[in-house]
Fold:
Amino acid sequence: MIFLERDPIYAWTCARNETVTVDKSDRPQTGSARYAQGLKPGMFVVVTEGIAVAAWAKPGGSTLSLVFGVEVK
Structure:
């Protein structure tokens, strides 16, 4: 096999492993308090133009908890 100067050669040696926590949450949102009355920390919320349109009890949940600030039963 012939290697030319344009062919890159890579060497990789692992010295250690580590676990890293990555936070992919969105920036804090500001909005109308009228639509945020039932919100609690940890809820997954869809905010459109400052209005909390829908909220779930946890990210990935299948059942809505709030719609426009009103509890869904």
